[in-house]
Amino acid sequence: MADEKGDATPFLKNGVKPTVAKTPTPEKPKTGKEGRGKAFKQIVAALIANLGTINTGMAFGFSATALPQLKSPDSSIHITENEASWIASLSSVGTPIGCIVSGYLMDNIGRRRTLIFTEIPLILGWILIAFAQNVPMIYVGRLLVGFGSGMVGAPARVYTCEVSQPHLRGMLGAMASVGVSTGVLIQYIIGSATSWNILAGVSAIVPIVSFLGMLVLPETPNYLLTQNKEEKAEKSLSKLRGSTCNLTEEIQKMVAFKEKNHVEPLKSPREIIKALMAPSTLKPFGILALYFFIYQWCGVNTITFYAVEVFEASGASLDKYSLTISMGVLRVIFTVVGCILCRRCGRRPLTFVSALGCGTSMTVLSVYLYYVQYWKENSIQPQYPWIPVASIYLFMIFCTLGFLIVPWIMIGEVYPTQVRGIVGGMTTCVAHLSIFSVVKTFPLLKHALNDYGAFGLYGALSLAGTAFFYVFLPETKGRTLQEIEDYFCGRTKTLKQNAQTDLA
Predict the structure, then answer these.
(1) CA torsion through residues 467, 504, 424, 85, sign
(2) pTM score, two decimals?
(3) Is 470 helix (H, G, I), strand (E, B) or coil?
């Protein structure tokens, strides 16, 4: 019978001790910053996914340079004031429909395939406008462009948030806003140098490039896990993170959350409705719906859609097209700045900057426009022409830093995984309905309240929105998608960070 020592003594054969191979100690999985995925891979994926958002900006900026050309007496297609308002706003009519469609598609065929399909109406819409022979053809083209812009909004943001890690999610999620601002600037620059139909033809290039780019990207791991495709989710995560990431830990956290909360595909309409009516869906939806209403009624898309006309009405002495282009440049620059600040400062502080800054600058513009009307009625030369230009520029800077970034990022953050696609589409639908309401009513408000009254209303609504944001807007910086979902489900009391070192 072997003694205790014998158990530990190597077996002897011919008096020779055998070589005992030591089992190598497994490497500890990388944690913290060492275990992060490669930022480059996530940035590239986000860039490709958000190429389509450039179209949204193009849809917004097209009317600013196209409408003055179409109103010109020597235009091949001459339009009235009423037709101009429809051309400006019809893209926002098609957009809500696209939002709802893309929301349904996202949860049924995936984020990636939805982003591929969304480019088709955009390509058709721009080509139809480019070859338009009459106003109805422009109307249909604008509807298709709006439909495609609506389809791309939520999937681009949801895809970006689902493929990026918390420390990058805020910055990468804001890329959609950079895309929109870039699209606006492209239309301002090309539109000021060429005709409206050539501008539409050039615009078709962007959705074609976006279509080709999405073909090489993987589906998001989150969506694949909801479809019970764990092996494919691991492969997707590997492509998106690279060798530096602790893939096992990250995928295990996703699987654990899925099993803990019974995250399964919703098959019947009853299950979908039940999930949509849950507090974890209704609470963030209500917050974001009001956020979009307030930020749209601060007047940002009135300025964007009617930029040339607004500068002309303000009495500014400089060339209106040069002012419009420079405003577009400012928008792009400060959208990039906003992306960086969103990673550093969080969602709430940037929202307060926008609400107070936009409200103040709109109020100043309103007061100046009141004096412009007084000077015109009394045949007095307008004074201090730099004031309206400075007010509009400051307004665009303040708006870009928060309003044009924060709510769009949060679409991909705050909703439950099972209905993130559907309710994300519903949210972008509400956002674009708010855009339509502002753009379509601006000519009516201008005639009813004059220019100064319309902009004064926008300023007042922006300032009033500050109280709402202070009470109801949560801070999601640095939190994982699972932590945010737990908060809105009521499983955790707060989203405040305790010893959180990662930036988001």
Answers:
(1) positive
(2) 0.69
(3) helix
